[in-house]
Structures are given as structure tokens and as C-alpha cells.
Automatic annotation (TrEMBL):
Coiled coil: none annotated. Keywords: FAD, Flavoprotein, Membrane, Transmembrane, Transmembrane helix. Pfam families: FAD_binding_3. This is 2,4-dichlorophenol 6-monooxygenase isoform X1. GO terms for cellular component: mitochondrion. The chain crosses the membrane at residues 45-66. Residues 49-423 form the FAD-binding domain. GO terms for molecular function: FAD binding; oxidoreductase activity, acting on paired donors, with incorporation or reduction of molecular oxygen, NAD(P)H as one donor, and incorporation of one atom of oxygen. It comes from Phoenix dactylifera. One of its GO terms (biological process) is ubiquinone biosynthetic process.
């Protein structure tokens, strides 16, 4: 009976007229899945507040964030099964910080990833069993001491990450469904929290209240179309985004930097050999017979991806059969492991492009991840930038649908994230060029290879038969690779000795391919958007975007608006927090739309906090106040804010935990204890100032929240 009552209740809730939020002539539906009044050939169309196209890591992560914030969503995925190709594998500090807030996700990644000592190095060699030309260790002691972040970077294949994300979604009530499984789902209540496999977005049309989406699927061997309606459509459908093309958004940047064949293969014999002899993450292999980059996804499991450049149309992807790929693997390994199994072979093109717009159709269609930006893989910025796109967007969608912010909050997503994407694109290109410095030092200038290819493709070369074009191209490349023979590349050969010396210099000076970029990973800063900028020198923020930089820079903590909140370990001084010692980043919950105000135990700051809590209540904004006390305060008898913030109770007193010779919290933030910091739900700083510089606190806080949320006080 209880089950029947629950079903009846859900049917009643889903049959209600959709609650609509209206401001400035626009409307957005509320959180719940409903049946829309729009018709599709006489059939009712299901309405979702948010529909996500693409079930890769970015789309799945966004689904988790939105669901945790109470926003109903569904996911369309054109594939019928999830890819088992490893693809992306490096998870940077910031992404791992975000994963800490998702049901133990970061902890699971750290437990399941290979041991750090097995992937910390990039190795340059003539074959996997041949001479080592050099190696670079990309992990330093400070990467593990948790001074700048509560978590370290990780090496974890994309398909394994997808499995963990799907598990979290299952825990939230999501179900992965094929078209056949959906035939019996006629009641709208059963469509909630679905990942709809085999559904390809083929059309979209703006409506007065959202977007009508057409998705094709196969039924009994025939293609059919199903319509959905949503308030917001999020495109996370990859580098060749259908949604991006349907709304006519162009990509801007460098196209086809290089074409490669990606060979996914397994070999436990090779994995065990490398475990014992030369463990690493990436192996750059140069010898007279072949050139390639091997990604060791998991040495214990013997899982690898080999990246091999190719030059169409003279070299065709179809030429890379499983047999041919095995021969290439053997040439690069230096011996023939008997258990090599080629799992998958894929072509791909390297681009460095950013969408001209991230938001379209009156803030209804939004691009995230590879749909919005395509990077060279150098530095691992692709998936990580997408994960951070989703994190920036989720709280803004929730604020809009929760009647807290205006539609303009969605525009701030583009204002904030597009400059970061441009900066990361430039940084990836620079890192890719740094990677090319190694073959250049060995006498294999990649620009020369591209020039040869262009000549053969030109009017002069194109008159030759295709077979002769291929023979000429591969003959020239073979001559170039002959410089890599041990006869030539050794210390006794004057030219070889000079090239090896140049190679050592590149590694010593840190001018080869880099793995970590702390300043950009943790220190990226939004210069405008849903924040109150306080001016200052923009040199550091724009340096990477302009392309003027000299290798990875250290992360410098900052409390400047737009920056990520600095990490410091603190200790709770009362029982209102679940852990005794935790990071300042943990003060912002992952499952609640809440702002954070950080102050010191100073009388004027308490006055400001009370006023801010009052104004936040009027703006329907949840706000928590954190009072950070100096180290040693817990030893004193009178510690804690007591009744100073009455009648509000949503506050926490914490004590800073300083490492030896480290700075205090306010010193870390380059502020005084008279300062205060307002932090957004995405852990980025929205506003900062000094409490003793504000004469009229209430009007100023009203102005600040109006700017951040895009609303007027009179509209609240």
C-alpha cells in the first residue's frame, strides 16, 4: 500500500502545471520533470528542466552536480554502449578537488589508480628495450604534502572514471536505458533520471519556454524519432558536437595540427617488463623503423595506447590493420611480446580551437567540454577544463531554476569560462611545441615533415600516381629516421654527440613536454562575470592567454575575486562540522546552493556578517559564515562567536592550522584580519574587502548580490 501511495503521489506531482520563473520577459521551468503542453504529432512531449546531450565524463559529472542541487535532468547518448577506449587519463589538482565533493569519488580514484612511482616519469628512448635518451620526473615532494591543495593529481583512464561516475549516478537513482528498455515507459514519472543510450540528437528548435529536441533511435531495426522539451539544453557531445553544429556556432583557432592513429592494446608481458625495467606514464620512442608515443595506462594490467602520426591521403587509416599495428608495436618495443592483443584502432585529428560562443538561443543552449573547446592533449587540459566547465555551470543553472538569479547568470558562464578555454588552448599548443623540441633536437623537425607532405599534396606532387606519392613520402620519412640509428646517434659521432647534448639541455631546463601547470591548474582567475572585481594588475592572469610565458609557474594563493578559495587546513571549534580537521574548501558544500562569508573574530566583521545574513535572506540566498581564529585559540577559555551572530545560527568557528614557518590565513590571502571574503558555491571568490572601509554595509551588500545574481533588489 505504501508503494502504491508513493506512486500516486509522484503521478500527482508530475501532472501539476509546471511552475515557471519569470523575469525580464523570459521564463524558465522549475526543477521537476513534467509533461509539456507542446505536442508532437498529437503526442505529449516530456519536459525536463535540463537535458544533457553526451554521456562522457563532463556530461555525467554535470548530471551528478545538478542532481545534488535538486535539479532534474536526463542525458541523451548516441552510442548504445560506453566506450572502453582509455582516452584521457590525467586528472589535475582542481578536478580532483571537485571529485572530493562527490561521494568519495576522489578517494576511489586514488585507491584504484596505479602507484605514483609507476607513472611519474616521461621516458625518451630508442625502443622500450633500447637506449634511454632521457627521462623527466614530473612529481615533486611538494605535490604530496597537501600545502596548496587537499588532494594530489591522478593517472586514471577515462573509461574507468566513467564507470565510477555511473556508479554515483546509480546511487542517486539514475538508470541507464537502451531504446528497447524504454518501450514500456509511458508514464512521465518513470522517465526521471535516465541516461538514454542509442539516442542521437538530430534537431532542436527554440520555443517560448525552452528548446524542443529531436532524438533518433532504433526500434525493431528502423530509425524513429522521439521529441523532448527542456528549459536548458547542455551540449557535452564532444569535439564533433552535433548540438554546436545545429545552432550554428563556429570553432576558432588552429585546425588539424596533426593526424594520428590511436592503437589501444593489451600486453601483460610488456607491462611486467616495464614495471621491472623502466616504469613511466609516457614513452617517446624514436628509432629508424618507427616513431610513436606510448601511453602506459596501467602497467599492472598491461593496458596501453600507442599514438602514431600518419599523413593522408598517401597514408590511409584503412592501412592500419590489426596486423600492421602489431608490427609497429613490435618495432617500438624492440622485441615481440607474444600476448599483444590489439583492442581498438581509431583515427583522430589534433585541433586547437575554441567555440566562438558558449551560450546560444537566449541562454537556453550551452556548450561544455570538448563541444566548447578542442585542445592538443599536451598537458591534459581537455577533460579537466570540461570538468571545471560543468562545475562553473551547475550552481548557475540551479540558481536560475531556483528563482534566485536572473537568466543573465547563464551568460556569466561564457564570460568566465571562455577566456580560460582560450588560455588553456594556447598553453596546450605551447606544450605541444615543447614536445616537438625533442625530435627537432634529434634532427627530425616535424615542420619539415609537414612541409614535405604539403609539397606532395601540391599541384607538383599531385600529378604522381597515389602509389608513387605514398612511396615518395615514406621514402623521405625513412631517410629522416635513419638519423636515429645507433651508428649515428652516439657520443663518438660529432653530430650525434651534439644532438644528445642538446637533448640533455632541453630536459635539464624543463623545456620538454610538461605534465603539471600549477599556476593555471589552481590559480586560474575569472576577471569578470558573477563577481565584483577589485581591479589590480592583470599581467599574471593574461600571460598564458597571450602566449608569453616561460615554462610552468608555481601556484600563488590569492583571494582576488574570481580566484579559487585558497586551501588551508583548519580545525572546527564546535561540533557543527562532521570532521575535526578539514580544508577551507570543505566549508562549501557540494550538495547545497550556499555562499560562504569568511571573517576574523573582529567586532566590525561581526557587524558586517549580521548585515550580510539579513540581506542574503531577502535575496533568498543561503549563506554560511565562517569565523577563522588564529592558531592556538582553542587553548583559550573564551573561544567562539557565541551569540555575536544572533539570531542567525548558520555559522562555524574554526582555528587555522599552520604548517611550520607557514603563513596565517589572512597572510596567505594577502589581506589583514579586518578583511572578509565572500565565496560562491563553486569555491571561487565573488567579493572581498575590509570591514572598516564600508560605511553603509546593507546597501553595499545589496549592490554586490545584485551584481552577482543579475537581479534588482526591487525584484526580489
Amino acid at each position: 500500500m505504501a508503494g502504491m501511495a508513493a506512486i500516486a503521489l509522484r503521478r500527482w506531482m508530475n501532472s501539476r502545471s509546471a511552475y515557471h520563473w519569470r523575469r525580464k520577459g523570459r521564463s524558465f521551468s522549475s526543477f521537476s520533470c513534467t509533461v509539456d503542453s507542446n505536442k508532437d504529432g498529437g503526442r505529449e512531449v516530456l519536459h525536463f528542466p535540463v537535458l544533457i546531450v553526451g554521456a562522457g565524463p563532463v556530461g555525467l559529472f554535470l548530471s551528478i552536480l545538478l542532481t545534488n542541487l535538486g535539479v532534474d535532468c536526463a542525458v541523451l547518448e548516441k552510442r548504445t554502449v560506453f566506450s572502453q577506449h582509455p582516452q584521457a587519463h590525467f586528472i589535475n589538482n582542481r578536478s580532483m578537488e571537485l571529485f572530493r565533493k562527490v561521494d568519495g569519488l576522489a578517494e576511489d580514484i586514488q585507491k584504484l589508480q596505479p602507484a605514483v612511482d609507476l607513472w611519474r616519469k616521461f621516458i625518451y628512448c630508442t625502443s622500450l628495450s633500447g637506449s634511454i635518451l632521457g627521462s623527466v620526473d614530473h612529481m615533486q615532494p611538494q605535490d604530496f604534502d597537501k600545502i596548496v591543495s587537499p588532494v594530489s593529481v591522478a593517472h586514471f583512464s577515462q573509461y574507468k572514471l566513467v564507470r565510477l561516475l555511473l556508479k554515483r549516478l546509480e546511487n542517486l537513482g539514475f538508470h541507464t536505458c537502451t531504446p528497447d528498455m524504454l518501450q514500456s515507459l509511458n508514464q512521465d514519472m518513470l522517465w526521471e533520471k535516465k541516461i538514454l543510450m542509442g539516442h542521437e540528437c538530430i534537431s532542436l528548435h527554440p520555443t517560448d519556454q525552452g528548446v524542443m529536441v529531436g532524438a533518433s533511435f532504433q526500434k525493431e531495426g528502423k530509425m524513429e524519432e522521439r521529441k523532448f522539451h527542456c528549459s536548458i539544453l547542455v551540449a557535452s557531445d564532444g569535439a564533433r558536437s552535433t548540438v554546436r553544429n545545429l545552432v550554428g556556432i563556429n570553432m576558432k583557432g588552429e585546425h588539424d595540427l596533426q593526424k594520428l592513429v590511436s592503437i589501444h592494446f593489451m600486453s601483460k608481458d610488456l607491462g611486467q617488463y616495464l614495471l621491472q625495467q623502466r616504469p613511466g606514464m609516457l614513452f617517446f620512442i624514436f628509432n629508424p623503423e618507427a616513431i610513436g608515443v606510448l601511453v602506459a595506462h596501467d602497467l599492472n594490467q598491461g593496458e596501453f595506447v600507442l599514438q602514431v602520426p600518419y599523413y593522408p591521403p598517401q597514408q590511409k587509416f584503412e592501412d592500419f590493420s590489426s596486423k600492421v599495428c602489431k608490427q609497429i608495436i613490435f618495432k617500438l618495443v624492440g622485441w615481440e611480446p607474444v600476448d599483444v592483443e590489439v583492442v581498438d584502432i581509431k583515427p583522430w585529428a589534433m585541433h586547437a580551437e575554441v567555440a566562438e560562443k558558449f551560450v546560444s538561443c537566449n541562454n537556453r543552449v550551452i556548450l561544455v567540454g570538448d563541444a566548447a573547446h578542442r585542445f592538443p592533449p599536451a598537458g591534459g587540459f581537455g577533460m579537466n577544463t570540461g570538468i571545471q566547465d560543468a562545475h562553473n555551470l551547475a550552481w548557475k543553472i540551479s540558481s536560475l531554476l531556483n528563482n534566485i538569479a536572473s537568466p543573465s547568470i547563464i551568460q556569466t558562464y561564457e564570460v568566465e569560462r571562455r577566456p580560460i578555454a582560450i588560455s588553456n588552448t594556447n598553453l596546450s599548443v605551447q606544450n605541444f611545441k615543447a614536445a616537438m623540441s625533442v625530435p627537432t633536437a634529434l634532427g627530425l623537425d616535424p615542420t619539415m615533415a609537414n612541409s614535405v607532405h604539403q609539397v606532395i599534396n601540391s599541384s607538383i606532387g599531385s600529378i604522381l600516381p597515389s602509389s608513387m606519392q605514398k612511396a615518395v613520402l615514406e621514402g623521405i620519412f625513412s631517410i629522416g629516421r635513419s638519423q636515429l640509428s645507433e651508428f649515428f646517434l652516439n657520443e663518438d659521432n660529432p653530430i650525434g654527440s651534439m644532438r644528445l647534448a642538446r637533448l640533455r639541455s632541453i630536459f635539464h631546463e624543463g623545456k620538454s613536454l610538461q605534465l603539471q601547470f600549477p599556476a593555471e591548474d589552481l590559480g586560474f582567475c575569472y576577471l569578470e562575470g558573477a563577481l565584483v572585481a577589485d581591479g589590480g594588475n592583470r599581467t599574471l592572469e593574461t600571460e598564458a592567454a597571450s602566449g608569453h610565458r616561460s615554462g610552468p609557474r608555481d601556484y600563488i594563493p590569492s583571494a582576488k575575486p574570481g580566484s579559487r578559495l585558497p586551501h588551508m587546513q583548519v580545525r572546527a571549534l564546535n561540533a557543527s562540522f562532521s570532521k575535526d580537521i578539514f580544508s577551507t574548501l570543505d566549508l562549501i558544500p557540494g550538495d547545497k546552493l550556499e555562499f560562504l562569508l569568511i571573517i576574523a573574530p573582529v567586532e566590525k566583521s561581526y557587524d558586517l556578517a549580521r548585515s550580510t545574513l539579513k540581506v542574503a535572506e531577502e535575496f533568498k540566498v543561503s549563506l554560511k559564515v565562517c569565523i577563522i581564529w588564529p592558531e592556538g585559540s582553542s587553548d583559550k577559555q573564551e573561544t567562539g562567536s557565541g551569540t555575536k551572530l544572533d539570531p542567525w545560527t548558520n555559522h562555524i568557528d574554526v582555528e587555522e592550522i599552520k604548517r611550520s614557518s607557514s603563513k596565517s590565513w589572512w597572510e596567505l590571502c594577502h589581506m589583514t584580519s579586518k578583511g572578509f571574503i565572500l565565496v560562491r558555491p563553486d569555491e571561487h571568490i565573488a567579493w572581498r574587502s575590509d570591514s572598516d572601509t564600508l560605511d553603509n554595509i546593507v546597501p553595499e551588500v545589496e549592490r554586490v548580490l545584485s551584481l552577482i545574481l543579475g537581479v534588482e533588489k526591487s525584484c526580489v
